[in-house]
Amino acid sequence: MMIVMQEGATDEQVARIVERIEAAGARAHVSRGEFVTVIGAIGDDRELIASMALEGEAGVERVVPILKPFKLVSREFRREDVVVEVGGRRIGGGSFGLIAGPCTVETRGQTLVTAHAVKDAGASLLRGGAYKPRTSPYTFQGLGRPALDILAEAREETGLPIVTELMDVRQLDEVLEVADVIQLGARNMQNFDLLREVGRADRPVLLKRGVSSTIEEWLLSAEYIAKEGNDQVILCERGIRTFETATRSTLDISAVPVAKGLSSLPVIVDPSHAAGRPDLVLPLARAGLAAGADGLMVEVHPAPNEARSDGAQAVSPTEFARIARAAIALAELDGREVALPEGLRERASVAAEARS
Amino acid sequence: MMIVMQEGATDEQVARIVERIEAAGARAHVSRGEFVTVIGAIGDDRELIASMALEGEAGVERVVPILKPFKLVSREFRREDVVVEVGGRRIGGGSFGLIAGPCTVETRGQTLVTAHAVKDAGASLLRGGAYKPRTSPYTFQGLGRPALDILAEAREETGLPIVTELMDVRQLDEVLEVADVIQLGARNMQNFDLLREVGRADRPVLLKRGVSSTIEEWLLSAEYIAKEGNDQVILCERGIRTFETATRSTLDISAVPVAKGLSSLPVIVDPSHAAGRPDLVLPLARAGLAAGADGLMVEVHPAPNEARSDGAQAVSPTEFARIARAAIALAELDGREVALPEGLRERASVAAEARS
Amino acid sequence: MMIVMQEGATDEQVARIVERIEAAGARAHVSRGEFVTVIGAIGDDRELIASMALEGEAGVERVVPILKPFKLVSREFRREDVVVEVGGRRIGGGSFGLIAGPCTVETRGQTLVTAHAVKDAGASLLRGGAYKPRTSPYTFQGLGRPALDILAEAREETGLPIVTELMDVRQLDEVLEVADVIQLGARNMQNFDLLREVGRADRPVLLKRGVSSTIEEWLLSAEYIAKEGNDQVILCERGIRTFETATRSTLDISAVPVAKGLSSLPVIVDPSHAAGRPDLVLPLARAGLAAGADGLMVEVHPAPNEARSDGAQAVSPTEFARIARAAIALAELDGREVALPEGLRERASVAAEARS
Amino acid sequence: MMIVMQEGATDEQVARIVERIEAAGARAHVSRGEFVTVIGAIGDDRELIASMALEGEAGVERVVPILKPFKLVSREFRREDVVVEVGGRRIGGGSFGLIAGPCTVETRGQTLVTAHAVKDAGASLLRGGAYKPRTSPYTFQGLGRPALDILAEAREETGLPIVTELMDVRQLDEVLEVADVIQLGARNMQNFDLLREVGRADRPVLLKRGVSSTIEEWLLSAEYIAKEGNDQVILCERGIRTFETATRSTLDISAVPVAKGLSSLPVIVDPSHAAGRPDLVLPLARAGLAAGADGLMVEVHPAPNEARSDGAQAVSPTEFARIARAAIALAELDGREVALPEGLRERASVAAEARS
Predict the structure, then answer these.
(1) Smaller CB count within 10 Å for chain A: N or C?
(2) What pLDDT sits at residue C279?
(3) For chain A, how big is the Rg over CA atoms in Å?
(4) E runs forming strands in chain C
């Protein structure tokens, strides 16, 4: 790190900082400029900055970290892409995953109908919530345990692996009985005890970005998981909170190439939660893929208007099939592989041919 | 709620909405304007909006809620101020609380020295973290259990009640052994399982506002606690995340009068976390009180530069004494009562006289 | 508009609002709910809300506008897409425009070299700044008048129409001598005198979105221009200001489909200013097109590192050629027409074939 | 400035940067760390960073400026407070200014009534808009020239100096005929031609902070004015744009002590525009003063509900008198001088006595 001294900082103040850096086991390097003095501390920033509080020392203007604060999930640490493989479907490293399903498991019927529909349209994995974080205590909070059984049945029927959310460390065991991928929601991106627990679990984790989290904080949360031994993390951009009110969140499309540059983890996009409007799911899904995302997560409901949660943003199975076709066309333009159930790629190719 | 139809919505579309409102047990009221039709749904919005998803219906432009989404914590539900009383100190209803102490309990010595110092300066309660949420897995995460014992000892020595943070539902019992007030941090404001658990506990809760939470969401989180039976909630404004980088967060000073208008709960201000800089703690503390806050929460460290977490923002005991005197002077200007240890009020008055 | 009364508003307060609405020439419609009373004011919101200040009346909780505040640029007013045609190039209505060139005209040589390079790569229009708004008074502010002559020469040599920025009403005449499209920068999106002046000019306007402007405010600024008689407005999304610091601005990709839904005007994307980093220009350009944008505006510099302004984000001619090819491939996937100089489409098709 | 190289940057890349720094007339200082190399460029950042674009060079991770980008308005350049004196009223340096009046001059009657009322309550200056920037072209845009005559008459009658807004360089001469202080609105904070023009005028300037401008950008805009020779600039914090919708803007109360630390210019607060609600003007005005502001700017209307612009946030003369008394009490607590018309201080003291 570099310590920028205030204009007029005294020699004693500079000496005090040098002394503290050396006491911490690092080397100090003083550079006197025309107006200000800068001290370089040569050592590992992740530990140095954590253990010192140099901003508070007399004469210090500010402290500038040099090294990135995360390591295990960084592109420098691991050059090649992490590929998460779930039930034979690969996400990352050129392979593209299409996760779809209801926001919340409401009934057995709704879930099975949706599961079959999204499978037919080309989904690689089925999503569905058993436990739902809800802003208001007066709204539907999910079916809980029974929903997990319904999801297991849907997997058995369709063969689609299951992505479902974990909200509370006490539910880890029952979620692990069913989930092929554990989802951590945006509100839990900095629930550090939960991060540590899933870091010890033997299951891929889908980590949503918090609505007010920087990309760096997101990667630090992934680092919590990786530090416990689990490097099977899928990052999911789902929109950040800004002043704009036309959409529920602002999809930070730049986060896709930025996160993929900083980290080797796969990055997917959730256009449904970002927009909060079904008519924007298709254009945002296309934008996500064009920006380089390794997959999509889309909310689908057989009768969106009757959904018990977030229905306003779910798309119908028909609209999802359109989104899936658009996704496949874009992936093919880039020479990317899409994990597709048998027969679907053929149908997609035929459709592409017919169009041209 | 009101449902605004799109320009050109058909009679069938209007009829469909009316039918759905009536099916939900509410009354519908159609108002045809020159350009658009608006349908009023007369009933309880909290349930109606939760259970329907009218935005998704054909012909609907948008849905406008009329009633506030929270009830138990609202000023309409309970006109008079909620007063939280802890060990004889009152916060709210004209009484002012001064919570001070270290960000994190690091050692027995640091904690006891700080406890005595803040008590002497006028603090009503002692704060100190045993478990610390930290953005990076490489930084100090708190001493855990041993820190709780140190806090208990500090209470015994000084008589100051203890405010300490709960991060994980599994630690609830041990935190309850020591905490006089349970703190929920900004990152856990929407950890709904945690909210429900503290709602069932027999202890006041200090609920920090999330850095990207609206005031309405903050009150909905308080509603989660109240709904479980615990109405002893202190709201704490600690800054929101904005584009400005000169301060760590932007203290939303307007949130104080706004929250006090919407809710009967006491509202305090945390100038330390908002600013992230010790030189701003005094002006922001004064601003908070002038805006009507019922108290302050200030980080104090005997040697701020050596603090193991957030040292950069802690103030020294001497600076805290200055802040306390400023707070007392402002409270007196407004005729508010400050819970002060014996002798301190006298000293404060003498100081005021000397100044004038 | 609808006026939502406070719980407990009196009959007198309701009567007062009704009276004021009727005095303003509109009709009032009172709807009494279980908890609150809502009054509908039936008339033109754009005038009603402007001329009354009902939020200030006793008993009023809030005022909810029903009609959109803009008219001439709205999709309701004009269903079919506005197509802006400049020197035979069409932008909007299925046609796609590729605007490229230096941020600032620095020298004759740099401008001519860039103009030829972007033309060869497929650009439809040439951009270049003569007058530059700069945050600091100590940075290069543009060459002014001589830059306009250089742009005119570049047009003569390449045949590319010119897009250049107008900052000051006093420079309108000289800018009109050269500009085929007048650009209004993000900082001037709400410079209302400038909006009115270009509204009276006989030239298309490229209106950048302000970094903290909502989509609604952006369309209201376009309405200022249209109200003076000029409906040849191209909207340009260039990123909004958020808490994220990894990119200079956050490209609001959702703004593309949202603005195109609300308005008939063409919408283009500026990936260079949004990102502030050359490595993000390609993925953001692709994302913009995939989201439905009618064009791109890209900064190109023959030696980006030596640019006198914003060099850090300009791409080289070689990288621009890659971006243009990617844009053409995406446009073709969607069956959109790209205005291309002779011979280029052929080359693009050959490249596409070679790739497959 | 410091140039942080990427991990693995080559010796050639480092040498290239050193060469460019030296070619720019500065000295380079290379510091090789365990992981990364940092190059210090010793010289004047304001020019260096402006003239180079090192972020674009191969091997460069990022560029960190060391010096502040503004100079003339900085506290380092001028240690003592700038005091702006207008018609015998002082703002800054311990003196406190109370600017009040209508948002917009609507009629002669409304303006004169308000002028007398605010004078009686203790205002030091009268504000009133002749030209109004309005988001929508359909709302009242000010009376223009005739409003300036009304303001001149109000000054003659009350003796209060006039603060009025300049929107367009072409109106400078007529505004200078009447204005004692020229106001630049938030939307024009980065209208650089306007900044330069008022920098050449012989009149104090009240510079509002843009709703999405950082404190640093605000001071750079003040630097534009100072660079032309006018150092009589009053900074006015009026709220920034954030995700919170309970208030129109979020008053950035920290900006008061931060700007006063970085700059010697006086800083005032506009609680009316920040809040957009009359009930918040008093608490925010108090907060502003408690945070150290050198003054307030408050909108007052004799019949707020009938105001033609922004009426929803104006306070009545009675409420303004309450705000003025609260301001005077706070200023006295801090030993600050308030410029008061004769007789008022006496009345304020009597009131204070009566209260105690």
Answers:
(1) C
(2) 92
(3) 23
(4) 2-5, 27-32, 37-42, 60-64, 84-86, 89-91, 95-101, 125-127, 162-165, 181-184, 205-208, 233-237, 267-269, 295-299, 337-338
User: What's the residue count for chain D?
Assistant: 356
Q: What is the DSSP string of A108-156?
A: HHHHHHHHHHHHHHT-SEEE-BSS---SSTTS-----HHHHHHHHHHHH
**Under-70 pLDDT residues of chain C:** 45-51, 53, 56, 305-312, 339-356
Looking at the complex, report in whole angstroms how far the Cα of residue B252 sits from the nearest Cα belonging to chain D.
6
For the segment D52-74, what is each residue's pLDDT rounded down to a tens digit? 767 767 788 888 877 788 999 99
Q: Name the burial class of residue B154, with classes exposed (0-12), middle (13-18) and buried (19+) by CB atoms within 10 angstroms of its CB.
A: buried
Low-confidence winner among B144-158, B310-324, D205-219 (lowest mean pLDDT): B310-324
Task: Find the distance separating the first CA and the last CA of chain C, reported in whole Å.
Answer: 56
CA distance D35 to D32: 8
Q: Alpha carbon of C272 to those of A203, B190, C338: distances in Å? A: 39, 37, 20
Q: What is the pLDDT of residues C258-279, one digit of tens each?
A: 999 999 999 999 999 998 889 9
Of D316, D322, D279, nearest to D299 by C-alpha is D316
> Shortest CB distance from B36 goes to which of C64, C66, C242?
C66
Confidence of residue A241 (pLDDT cuts 50, 70, 90): very high
* Residue contact D290–B290, C-beta within 8 A: yes
**Residue A336's pLDDT band (cuts 50, 70, 90):** confident
First-to-final CA distance of chain D: 56
Shortest alpha-carbon distance between residue D192 and chain C (Å): 7
D343 has pLDDT over 50: no
Q: Extract the tokens encoding C63.
A: 């005022």
Report the residue from D2, D7, D34 with minimal CB separation from A2: D2
Mean pLDDT estimate for chain D: 89
Tell me the whole-structure pTM to 2 decimals.
0.91
Let me know: does C162 contact C180? Beta carbons within 8 Å: yes
Beta-bridge mates of residue D30: D39
Contact flag D257-B274 (C-beta cutoff 8 Å): no
Task: Write out the H or E segment, with its range, that includes residue D176.
Answer: helix D172-178
Provide the ipTM.
Answer: 0.90
Percent of chain D with pLDDT strictly greater than 70: 90
Beta bridge partners, C269, equal C237, C296
Please count the residues of chain C: 356
Where are the strands (E) in B51-148, listed by range? 60-64, 84-86, 89-91, 95-101, 125-127
Residue C346 burial by CB count (10 A; 0-12/13-18/19+): exposed, middle or buried?
exposed
Q: pLDDT tens, A167-186?
A: 999 999 999 999 999 999 99
Q: What is the pLDDT of residues A20-35, one digit of tens each?
A: 888 888 888 888 877 7
Establish if B246 touches chain D: CB-CB under 8 angstroms.
yes
Q: Which amino acid is at A273?
A: H
**Longest alpha-carbon distance in chain C:** 78
